[in-house]
Amino acid sequence: MPLSFDFKLDQLQTYQGINPKPADFETYWDTALAEMRAMDDKVELVPADFQVDGAECFDLYFTGMGGARVHAKYLRPSGVTEPHPAILMFHGYSGNSGDWNDKLAYVFQGYSVAALDCRGQAGKSEDVGGVIGNTHNGQIIRGLDNALNGEPEKLLFRQIFLDTAQLAKIMMNMPEVDPDRVGATGGSQGGALTVACISLEPRIKMAAPVFPFLSDYKRVWEMDEDKAAYAELRTYFRHFDPNHENEDKIFEALGYIDIHHLSPRIKSKVLWFIGLMDEICPPSTQFAAYNQITSEKEMVIYPDFGHEGLPGSGDKILQFFRNL
Description:
It is a single chain. The protein is α/β, with parallel strands linked by helices. It has helices at residues 9-12, 25-37, 104-107, 144-148, 156-172, 189-200, 217-222, 231-240, 247-254, 259-262, 283-290, 313-321, and strands spanning 43-47, 55-63, 69-77, 84-90, 112-116, 177-187, 206-210, 269-275, 297-302. A nine-stranded mixed beta sheet has the order 1-2-3-5-4-6-7-8-9, sandwiched between helices. Strand 1 and strand 2 form a beta hairpin.
């Protein structure tokens, strides 16, 4: 198998990851979840400009951590009031929730759909800021200076991860949604947010992450793959720690927002998609998270594909969620 830049498949299947886990990791996330659960989940539903027969489409707004106004697209089947399944969708890095039309396949199957706009990226969600230091070209390192100075709660991805869990809680409280029949999916950053969401909201029944991002940062660094989506790791060292005096502390701080440390919390049934030639989110970083999952799981492997469209994956995901 032509996998010269990463481990062979048998090694991947046992790899556990190398990015350090902060000693207070579990307390950190338990505290974060308690803060999130104390938030007012009042939502504002604004009828969207986009409307089609058979669906009701809304701009959904809620108040997230730090008082940010967070946006999601929300679609539900027209005229269906009895509780039915729902799908959460998460988008790629620096993107947004996408077009309305690509959610309709689920709506026409009788599902409600909520697609999050990540704060500070290309959608309508608000980034309230409040961190010191670097905001250059990305969000992995947003708040890292704070974390190194004893304030890891300022890491931006902490807030984004919590937005996913809060949106899941909001969806589960919708009168038209059956809270026991909720799924989540997304690719790249969206795959990472899928993993984070089901880790922080264990009631989610099923999930289909596609080549997730935000995992095992030190492995990315050691592979010299800190480019493209992970380029800000190198940017941070070059601009703020050129002699790597704080390297160990930096990777430990990033451990708070590393999905391979969150994965043991997962209780959902997971269908994971991976391309073994992925040089954007290297396979070993994905297996680091996948191998921590103890719930029912399956990995769909594309040996000759990288970080790109995986043929048939969308159809497989739709079929998978028919079992919600």
